[in-house]
Amino acid sequence: MDTLIVAKALFGLYALAVVGGGLMAVFAKSLVRAVVGLIMTLFGVAGMYLLMNAPFVAFMQLLIYVGAVVILIFFAIMLTKAPAGGDEVKPTPARQWVLALMAALIPAMVLGSMVLGSPQVTTGQPVEVSIQLLGKGLLEEFVLAFELISVVLLVAMAGAVLLAWKRREEG
Amino acid sequence: MTPLVMYQLVAIFLFGIGLFGIVHRKSLVGMLICVELMLNGAGLSIVAASMLTPAPDAAGQLTTLLVMGLAAAEATLVLAIILVVVKRFGSGATDAITDLKG
C-alpha cells in the first residue's frame, strides 16, 4: 500500500514538471528560457516512463531528447542570432490569442472526451520488458520499421548537409 | 480515475499546449520547441496505452523509439531549413517571411 502512495506522489511531481515546463516553453519571452522549460518537460515525461516500468524508454528519452534534440535547438537559437527576447517580445494581438486557444482546445476537448467517455481495460501493475526482448523485437518482428528509421535518419542528415552547403556557396 | 486515464490526460495536455504554442509563437525556433512538446505527448500516450493495457508491451516501447527517431530527424531538417530562411530573409520571425518565390 505504501508503494501506491509513493507512486501517486511521484506521478504528481512529474505531472507538475510536465505542466510547468510546458507552460514555460510556450509562454517564456526568451527562447533560451523556453528551451529550459522544454528540458523540464522532457525530464517529467522520462520520470513517467520510469513509473510505467519502462526504464529503457526513459533512458532513451534522456539520451535522444535532452542529449541531441535540445542541443540542436540551442544551435538553432545561436546560429539565427536571435537577440535576447527577440521576436517573441512583441505583444500578441487578441485575435491570435483566440485563434490559438481554439486551435488547442477543440482537438484537446475531442480527445479528452474520448478518453474519459470510453471504458478502458487496464491492467494493474505494468511488467518490465527486458532489453533482450526489445532487441529481439527490433531484429525480428519490427525489422522493417527499424531499417526504415535508419534510412530516414540518413536522408535527414544528407538533406541538412545539402541545405547548409548551398547556403555557404551563395554567401 | 485509473492510472491509464491520468497518463492519457497528461499526454493530451502536452499535445494541446504544443498546438497552442505553434499558433502563438512568432519565431521558427519557438515553433520547433512546440513540435517537440507535441511529439512527447504522442510518445507518452503510446507507452501508456501499451504498458497499462493487455496490448503487447514491447510493441509500444519500440513505437515510441520510432517516434523519437523521427523527432531527431525532423529537428535536424528544421534546423537546416531555419538556417536557410535566416540567410535569405535576415530573421527567423514568421511574419517577416512573406515571399513565396524570391
CATH architecture of the largest domain in chain A: Up-down Bundle
CATH class of chain B reads: Mainly Alpha
Structural class of the secondary structure composition of chain B? mainly alpha
- The count of DSSP E runs of length 2 or more, i.e. the number of strands of chain B, is 0
**CATH homologous superfamily of the largest domain in chain A, by name?**
NADH-ubiquinone/plastoquinone oxidoreductase chain 6, subunit NuoJ
Terminus-to-terminus distance of chain A: 66 Å
CATH topology of chain B: Helix Hairpins
The proportion of residues in beta strands of chain B is under 5%
Quaternary organization: heterodimer
CATH architecture of chain B: Orthogonal Bundle
Count of DSSP E strands of chain A? Answer: 0
Classify the helix fraction of chain A into a percent range: over 70%
* Shape summary of chain A: globular
**Class of the largest domain in chain A in CATH?**
Mainly Alpha
Count the DSSP helices of chain A.
Answer: 6
Shape of chain B: elongated
The domain count of chain B comes to: 1
> Approximately how much helix is present in the residues of chain B?
over 70%
Topology:
The complex is a heterodimer of chains A (about 170) and B (about 100).
Chain A: H1 2-27, H2 31-51, H3 55-79, H4 94-117, H5 131-139, H6 143-170
Helix pairs in contact in A: 1-2, 2-3
Chain B: H1 3-24, H2 28-51, H3 57-89
Helix pairs in contact in B: 1-2, 2-3
Description:
The complex is a heterodimer of chains A (171) and B (102). Chain A is an all-alpha fold. Chain A folds into two domains: 1-89, NADH-ubiquinone/plastoquinone oxidoreductase chain 6, subunit NuoJ (Four Helix Bundle (Hemerythrin (Met), subunit A), Up-down Bundle), CATH 1.20.120.1200; 129-171. Chain A is built from six helices and no strands. Chain A has helices spanning 2-27, 31-51, 55-79, 94-117, 131-139, 143-170. In chain A, helix 1 runs antiparallel to helix 2 (31-51) and helix 2 (31-51) runs antiparallel to helix 3 (55-79). The longest helix of chain A is centred in the C-terminal third of the chain and has 28 residues, at 143-170. Chain A is globular. With 102 residues, chain B is an all-alpha fold. Chain B has a single domain (3-90), classed as Orthogonal Bundle (Helix Hairpins), CATH 1.10.287.3510. The longest helix of chain B is centred in the last third of the chain and has 33 residues, at 57-89. Chain B is elongated. Chain B starts with a helix and ends in a 13-residue tail after the last helix. At the A-B interface, helix 1, helix 2, helix 3, helix 4 and helix 5 of A face helix 1, helix 2 and helix 3 of B.
